[in-house]
Amino acid sequence: MQKDMENTQSFKNCIWLLGSHTLVTFNDNLAKYMLLGLCGALMSNAAFEQANVQIGILLVVPFILFAPLAGWLADRFPKKTVISSALLAQVGGLGVIAVGMHQEQLSIALAGFFLLAVQTIFFSPARFGIIKELVGSKQLGLAIGWTEMLGMSAVLVGGFAGGLAFQKASGTTGGNSWQAGLFVTGGVALLSLFSWVLFQPTRKTAARSSAPFQLRNLFGHFQELRETMQDRGLRLSLLGFAWFIGVAWLVILCLSLVAKAIATGDAVGKLTGIFNLYLGVGIIIGSIFTAYINRGRVELGTVAVGALGMAAALLLAGLFVPTKTTDSHTAFNTCLVLMGFSGAIFSVPLRGFMVDRAGEERRGRVLASSTLLSNLFGLAFIGLHFLLLQRGLKAPTQFLFMALPSLILTGYVLYLLPEA
User: Fold this and answer.
1) CB-facing half-sphere around the CA of 10: CA atoms within 13 A
2) How far apart are CA 253 and CA 268, in angstroms?
3) Which class for 367: exposed (0-12), middle (13-18), buried (19 or more C-beta within 10 A)?
4) In whole angstroms, what is the distance from residue 149 CA to residue 291 CA?
5) Which of 147, 194, 301, 391 has its CA 20 to 30 A from that of 92?
6) Residue ranges of the chain whose pLDDT lies below 70
7) What is the pLDDT of residues 227-249, one digit of tens each?
8) Global pTM?
9) How far is CA 9 from CA 38, 136, 143, 205, 331, in A?
10) Residues 151-207: pLDDT tens digits?
11) Rounded Cα gap, residues 37 and 101, in angstroms
12) What is the longest distance spanned by two Cα atoms in the chain?
């Protein structure tokens, strides 16, 4: 009976969640690219490379520190309560960034950005965990597809909006980068309040676990992950998704460096955002395609095709990176579209599979484990990016460097994933 009721849930139940999820993700990335625009306007190329890596680390570390606690909260309390609290916390993080802009202290602004990342880690497992409770198994593949499409699109559109807003605000303030950043941060804070209001009509669901708080909820990171990885299907899907996140981090960091090399002043954030918009076009198309073929089920058949497409896109992107202001961006932008499409048809089914495979009581913890593993990969790829920079390998070479491992991954997926 419970299964029948679960399968008859309507996709419309998650509409308000999808809207709020999209807006809060948009806000996070608008703030990130506003900070990149600020750094691009104030720093040399070498200093920008360092700041770019620092921002990446600040985004990843909270997920590693707080993943198990976030998973426990998502299981122990009603997910609507957890999500609402996380949405309000975003406003606090933006307030700290505003203080940094007013004081003209980048360290304070980065501390606020760290708080935004902390807010995101508590938002993420509750957001994905509540989806099945709202729509049931039959609509899960479709809902996950829309969630990934809207989320990734918000990441990329938010990035473009952040760079553009900073450039426009800089012009309005007569080139005062700090005042421009303060103006943009205030606008994002208002959007954050609206995202909380937008979420409130979402139906409240019951807590799925009564497990009390334990110290492992603070320190049991790898124990939770080890337990999750004992399931072969979950292990393969978590590793595949984590690889995707790691490659995505390297690509995003490289795009910022490409923009810094060919743009000047306050245009760096905007150009980075434009590159990410092309990625977003591919992600939108790939996510819609995946959501369509996942109607009524989670289909893993596109994963290998996506892995092969990512390898091809990385290779071509390395060959067609613009290195001068006068270079055409057409071929490079086309590679980014292919990269986004391939990444979507690779990652969306893996996310849907792990959500469906996890049991009711442990879904939050499984998703938190996925977040932890993905961000460990992300941190490793940020470190790899920095190491390659220290070795003199700039963005074009790094794209080429990642093509071969991605091709090897295709064979791994073809061989192992069907056994899941």
Assistant:
1) 6
2) 13
3) buried
4) 9
5) 147
6) 1-9, 137, 208-210, 215-217, 219-221, 294-299, 359-362, 364, 411-420
7) 888 877 788 888 888 988 999 99
8) 0.77
9) 46, 5, 11, 13, 44
10) 877 887 888 888 889 988 988 888 888 999 999 999 999 998 898 888 888 877 777
11) 13
12) 65
| Distance between CA atoms of residues 168 and 37, nearest Å | 11
CA pseudo-torsion sign 246, 309, 155, 334: positive
Residues contacting 104, CB < 8 A, separation 6+: 178
Tell me if 77 sits within 8 A of 379, measured CB to CB: no
Q: Given the structure tokens 């198994």, which residue do they identify?
A: 137
Q: Give pLDDT tens digits for 328-339.
A: 889 999 999 999
Which residues fall within 8 angstroms of residue 306, CB to CB, at 6 or more apart?
286, 342, 343, 344, 345, 346, 347
Could you tell me which of 131, 124, 401 has the C-alpha nearest to residue 254? 401
83, 231 contact by CB (below 8 A): no
Amino acid occupying residue 132: K
